[in-house]
Design a protein that fits this description.
With about 90 residues, this protein is mostly loops. Helices cover about 10% and strands about 0% of the residues.
């Protein structure tokens, strides 16, 4: 018995130019209208929109009074840990 040579119906074409490949890729993946986004339009000159929202100045939280707290007492910050393991170092 002789082995039969396997043949395929599709033939391999040599690589074409970049333009040919680009056209083939564009045909395979068409751009849909919903995929394209509009470029943002610049605001009109007369609009009263602020450039950036106003920021409030940073305020520290009120400090806790740690005077009179023992090392093994519960920390007054409310964490539930002992003072020596929380704010005591």
């Amino acid at each position: 018995m002789a082995k039969k040579k396997a043949t395929t119906s599709a033939k391999v074409k040599p690589a074409g130019s970049k333009a040919d490949r680009a056209r083939a890729a564009a045909a395979a993946n068409p751009v849909r209208a919903e995929d394209v986004t509009q470029a943002p339009t610049p605001p009109k000159a007369g609009s009263a929109a602020p450039a950036a929202p106003a920021r409030l100045p940073f305020r520290r939280p009120p400090s806790l009074n740690f005077a009179g707290v023992g090392r093994n007492d519960i920390c007054p910050c409310g964490s539930g840990k002992r003072f020596k393991n929380c704010h005591g170092h």
